[in-house]
Amino acid sequence: MLYRRTALAVLGLGLGLGSFVSGQSSSAAHSGRVYQVVFLKRNPARTTLSKEEGERIQAAHMANIHAMADRGVLVSAGPFEDKPSVISGVFFFNTPTMEEARKIAEADPTVVEHRNTVEVFSWHGPAGLGEEYKRLHKENPATPEDMGVHPFVILRRAGQGLDTAVMAKHSAYWAGLRGSGKVLAAGAVDGDVSAVGLVIFDRIADAEAAKLVAEDPAVSGGVLTVEAHRWWSAAHVFPK
């Protein structure tokens, strides 16, 4: 599946935290809320499509994205640009349960047509995700999208357990980066056997993001492993 960056910019994306600390500085960001996050993962059994068939599925996929946003169930989405590609994109839903989010995501044409599979979990993010973007574009539809790439990291368990002392240092480490201007937000996830948290950086170099993640005590201590991605987002999607 190939996302059209400008089309998806209308949905944006943002991150926040549970055992992490929000990268935002305002009370709105710290108040937080739980979203259901769905990764659309490339189906390894994908076959090559004709140009016409690919365009048909893509058009249906984009129509579904806008329909979900219009219903108010989808608050954020965005494409990934990885080489090799593992995750095609991400949906952030404001549904109350993972099960409802999974049901909605599995109705996406790219999933129905066996182009993608889904990975679902709950995520502790900032309240008001995407609201500033929607406000600005409602007031002035000509507001520039200002698309850019953000390093996007999934932190996963290296083993079965999480050392309490190490994880306390892990949370303190990300709290200390709050004012650096490099980390937009970082947040804990629930309901997944391997994922522990998500970190999304501002538009910094991949190498710089990798260095910051490697210095996380839980990563350097072998408690967490790193899954690094590149995510496209419009401006103004994170609460300030």
UniProtKB/TrEMBL annotation:
Record-annotated membrane-spanning stretches: none
Entry superkingdom: Bacteria
A Pfam family matched in the record: YCII
Gene3D superfamilies per UniProt: Dimeric alpha+beta barrel (3.30.70.1060)
Residues of the YCII-related domain: 42-123
Stored InterPro entries: Dimeric_a/b-barrel, YCII
Family: Belongs to the YciI family.
UniProt-recorded name of the protein: YCII-related domain-containing protein
The species this protein was found in: Paludibaculum fermentans
